Every structure is written in C-alpha cells, then in structure tokens.
C-alpha cells in the first residue's frame, strides 16, 4: 500500500487481567477499504475492534487512525472520526430516548449545527420512515433499530465505521437489507470499515480483504477472491470455509 | 385416539390482547407430524415460536388460543388438565430454547439441574439421578462429564451450555423435541455440531423433532419436511429435499437473500412482500 493506511495496528496486545486475549496483531486498512475480521467466539475479533474504538483499557502496541498515533485516551475529534455499530440494536439504543433524541446526542456532543436537517437526512439515508423519528426503540422492529444505530453512527460524518456483527441478531431477510444499506453507504460516504463477523459469507459479501483469528492471533490474511476460491493455507481457515459451504448446502 | 400422528394441529389461532382488542399471531394453521424431523421456518413475528409454545400450552394466560384440533399423541392440549400438561411438558415433550445463558439456572450446578429434571419424571434416589445425569452428559458428547457435572452454567461455553440443555431435555425420554432457534446464539462450527448431535439423538431414540428457525437452508439440511410460515399462516409445506424447487415467492425470497460464499453478488435480492401473502388462506 503506497498511501497512508486509514487504520493501522502493529504488535497489538490486549490483556484482561491474566488473560492474554489479543496477541501481537498487525494489519492495515486502506482508505475506503472494508476489512473483515472473522473467527469464533473468544478468538479476540471483537476485542480488536473495541480496542480501536477506545472501549478497552490495558492494551500495548501501536494503533494509528489516519496516520495519528492513538493513546490510551482519545480526544473528541477521534470519536467524531471513528464510530461503531454493535451487534444487538436492542442493547445499544437508549430505551427511554426517542429516535430523535438518540440522533441529536452525537450532534450536541460534537457541537454540530443544523440538527433538524441532519436528523431528517440521516433517517432518509438509512431508509427509515419519517414517522420513526419520534418513536422509541421498542416501537421499532429489529431491522429498523439497527438502521437507527447506523444512522447514529453516521450522523457526525465519521470516516471510519467499526461494525461488530451488525446483522447477526437479524432475520436473514432483514440482514440482506442492512448489508445492502451498508454497501451503499460506504460508497456514498467513502467510509473505511472493519467488519467483525463469525459468518464467512457475510464477510465475503462486504470485504475485499480479511483476517482469520484464532486464540487471539491472526492466523491468516486473505483476499475475497482467495476466500471464494478456497485458497486458504491455515487449517483453521480451511475448516471455517468447509463449514460455511456445508451450511449453505 | 391416536392415528399414528404425534402432533396434530388443525386451524390453530392464537391472538394476543392489545389495548384495542386482539392482535392475531397465528391465523389458522394446520399441519401434523409423526416421529420425523419437521422444520418450521419464518421471520420474526411469523408465529413459528408461538405455534411451538401453544403445543406445550406455555403461552401467557391472556393469549387467546382456538383450534379445530390441537393434539399431542391423542391428548387434546386445549382440554388437558394442568396435571396432564405437567406430564407432557419436559416429560413427553422437551423444549430447547435459543440461549442456554437464560434457560439454565445460574445458581445450580449443571449436574443438579439435569438430576432434577430426571427425578421429576423418573423414580429413583439422588445417587441414581446423579449417575443418570453423568450418562446423559456422555450421550451429548461432553468430553469430561465428571467435571462439567459440578460446574455452574457461567463456567461452561455456549455450545456446552446447549449440550447441557439437551441432556436435561433427554432425561425423561421424551417423544418429541421442540428446538426453538437452538443454535442462533452459537458460532457456525458449534452450530453444526449441536444440530448434528440433535439429529443423531433424535434418530437413535426415534423421537420427533420440531426445529423452529429463521434459517431456511439450515433447516433444509437437518429436517425431512419444512413448513414455511409468514404472518401467522403457512405459505408452503414441502419435503426438505425439494427446497430448491420451492414454489412460493416467500420461500424463494428467504433462500435468495442469504449472502453466499460460492457465488459473488454485488447486491443481495431483498424480499418484496406481496400483500396477497397476508390474505386469509383456505
């Protein structure tokens, strides 16, 4: 990669007490690229994402976003530039705030003007009906809630979107809609994304490159073409690919 | 009287109360099953779980359940006494739910829970119950059953927890196993192992299996027959091996919208919902 990577990790280690959960991870994501992290529960993939987002303390190594070195504490500009979408939209939206309030908060935090127009545009962008604006999360379906979570992540114009299993709590029919939406948005907004999932088909659908994680390490890095052609070297990757084909039937 | 069918459902309606009246969740579905593997597939809100719960009479009291027939092995579920139902629930019908984190008792060891289930439906001493629990853990292929017996649910992984749940459901030797999204909370590799385990146990013990899931290809792989539900009605019923030849647009839509590893597509086809699917079916 000749240009400066948007996201760069080198020698990243994370400890939770005496548990060494991420071990010497290194990868780079180019601007506009969508990079996949795949692995089973406990492989450390979500922890890598949370560490980049600043949700994990007690890490070592180098992390850079847009060339800037990240420290243990992040400034406000960082949180405007990097946003995250979580797996469970039931858990990640405030149950007692309306969609309008949920979307207004990032704008207030970052001192962004023109909330009215921005919220209307954000809802339109994620294809939510206008009527959804003054509803509470429990009045929306799972897919609509995930759209709100995506709208909230995008409303402050981030350049990096971290996606942690964004569709695994959704029906397959709704998953298709959300995956299409993410594919459209990343082009329209020129987003750099990291997508964490245990589902290889979902990763292959959105990502150009991916890393396979096991026991806190990256065991292999593949391109989408290599993934689809089954050109994997590591036995764990091969197992995951074989399994995915088997479940597709 | 039993006509060889384990489950007989005819014109089942389930409505839930809302401030204005009732919201229909199941709108006149009919199907029957024997000792086979039947998949019930549909999206959230299609009524698939409610159907399973109605068969065990596990719905909230406020729910209104009506049916031409709702029978388990000849027993009329709607007319059965609470005592009869206790014999069926967990006895002749086992229920495996989505997330073992919530369906296991967090303050009881795994062994004690399985032993409790065993003693609720078998006569025997505590010692025998513990031995039975150990044997059941072996049957669900837990490698170190002695250790798992004395652990608490939070000390075991999700896949292991689901194995424990299955062991507990097998304790009374049920005739029917209802598995409601049994693997949605699990990793793909564990998912395959658990379904394989359920499949093996069901075949070996000659039980019936009702597998409730939103994942159509998955259900197609593990079941003999598939019932596809949408908005409280059955859209299509077909043998699992003919799934790729499904006629109904809804079934086709559910199959098409999955991303695939073998086939690259820029956009996923989304389900276009036809208002005609909502119309009352004969």
From TrEMBL, chain B:
<feature type="domain" description="ABC transporter">
    <location>
        <begin position="7"/>
        <end position="256"/>
    </location>
</feature>
<dbReference type="GO" id="GO:0005524">
    <property type="term" value="F:ATP binding"/>
</dbReference>
<keyword id="KW-0813">Transport</keyword>
<keyword id="KW-0067">ATP-binding</keyword>
<dbReference type="InterPro" id="IPR003593">
    <property type="entry name" value="AAA+_ATPase"/>
</dbReference>
<dbReference type="Pfam" id="PF00005">
    <property type="entry name" value="ABC_tran"/>
</dbReference>
<keyword id="KW-1003">Cell membrane</keyword>
<dbReference type="InterPro" id="IPR050388">
    <property type="entry name" value="ABC_Ni/Peptide_Import"/>
</dbReference>
<dbReference type="InterPro" id="IPR003439">
    <property type="entry name" value="ABC_transporter-like_ATP-bd"/>
</dbReference>
<dbReference type="GO" id="GO:0055085">
    <property type="term" value="P:transmembrane transport"/>
</dbReference>
<dbReference type="GO" id="GO:0005886">
    <property type="term" value="C:plasma membrane"/>
</dbReference>
<dbReference type="GO" id="GO:0016887">
    <property type="term" value="F:ATP hydrolysis activity"/>
</dbReference>
<keyword id="KW-0472">Membrane</keyword>
<dbReference type="InterPro" id="IPR027417">
    <property type="entry name" value="P-loop_NTPase"/>
</dbReference>
<keyword id="KW-0547">Nucleotide-binding</keyword>
<comment type="similarity">
    <text>Belongs to the ABC transporter superfamily.</text>
</comment>
<protein>
    <submittedName>
        <fullName>Peptide ABC transporter ATP-binding protein</fullName>
    </submittedName>
</protein>
């Amino acid at each position: 990669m000749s240009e400066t990577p948007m996201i760069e990790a080198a020698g990243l280690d994370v400890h939770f007490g005496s548990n060494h959960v991420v071990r010497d991870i290194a990868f780079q994501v180019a601007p506009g690229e969508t990079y996949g992290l795949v692995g089973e529960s406990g492989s450390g993939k979500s922890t890598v994402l949370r560490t980049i987002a600043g949700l994990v303390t007690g890490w070592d190594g180098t992390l850079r976003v847009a060339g800037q070195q990240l420290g243990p504490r992040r400034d406000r500009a960082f949180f405007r530039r990097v946003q995250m979408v979580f797996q469970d939209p039931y858990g990640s939206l405030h149950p007692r705030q309306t969609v309008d309030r949920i979307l207004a908060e990032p704008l207030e935090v970052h001192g962004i003007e023109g909330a009215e127009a921005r919220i209307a545009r954000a809802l339109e962008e994620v294809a939510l009906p206008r009527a959804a604006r003054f509803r509470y999360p429990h009045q929306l379906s799972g897919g609509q809630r995930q759209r709100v979570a995506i709208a909230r992540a995008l409303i402050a114009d981030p350049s990096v979107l971290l996606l942690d299993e964004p569709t695994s709590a959704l029906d397959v029919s709704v998953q298709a809609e959300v995956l299409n939406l993410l594919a459209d948005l990343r082009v329209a907004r020129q987003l750099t994304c990291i997508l964490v999932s245990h589902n290889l088909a979902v990763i292959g659908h959105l990502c150009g490159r991916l890393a396979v994680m096991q026991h806190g390490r990256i065991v292999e890095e593949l391109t989408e073409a290599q993934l689809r052609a089954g050109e994997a070297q590591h036995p764990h990757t091969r197992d995951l690919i074989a399994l995915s084909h088997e479940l597709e039937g | 009287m039993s006509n060889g069918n384990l489950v007989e459902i005819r014109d089942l309606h389930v409505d839930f109360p809302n401030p204005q009246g009732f919201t229909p969740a199941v709108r006149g579905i009919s199907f029957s099953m024997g000792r086979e593997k039947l998949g019930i597939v549909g999206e959230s809100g299609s009524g698939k779980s409610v159907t399973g719960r109605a068969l065990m009479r596990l719905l909230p009291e406020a729910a209104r359940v009506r049916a031409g027939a709702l029978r388990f092995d000849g027993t009329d579920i709607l007319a059965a006494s609470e005592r009869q139902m206790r014999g069926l629930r967990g006895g002749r019908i086992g229920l495996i739910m989505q997330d073992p984190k919530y369906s296991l008792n967090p303050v009881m060891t795994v062994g004690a829970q399985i032993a409790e289930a065993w003693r609720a439906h078998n006569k025997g001493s505590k010692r025998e119950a513990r031995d039975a629990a150990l044997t059941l853990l072996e049957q669900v292929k837990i490698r170190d059953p002695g250790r798992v017996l004395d652990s608490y649910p939070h000390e075991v992984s999700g896949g292991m927890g689901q194995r424990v749940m299955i062991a507990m459901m097998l304790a009374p030797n049920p005739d029917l196993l209802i598995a409601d999204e049994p693997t949605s909370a699990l990793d793909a590799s564990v998912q395959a192992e658990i379904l394989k385990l359920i499949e093996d146990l069901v075949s070996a013990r000659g039980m019936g299996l009702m597998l409730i899931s939103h994942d159509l290809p998955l259900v197609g792989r593990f079941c003999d027959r598939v019932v596809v539900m949408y908005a409280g009605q059955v859209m299509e019923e077909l043998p699992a091996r003919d799934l790729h030849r499904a006629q109904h647009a809804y079934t086709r839509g559910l199959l098409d919208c999955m991303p695939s590893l073998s086939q690259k597509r820029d956009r996923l086809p989304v389900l276009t919902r036809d208002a005609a699917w909502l119309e009352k079916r004969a």
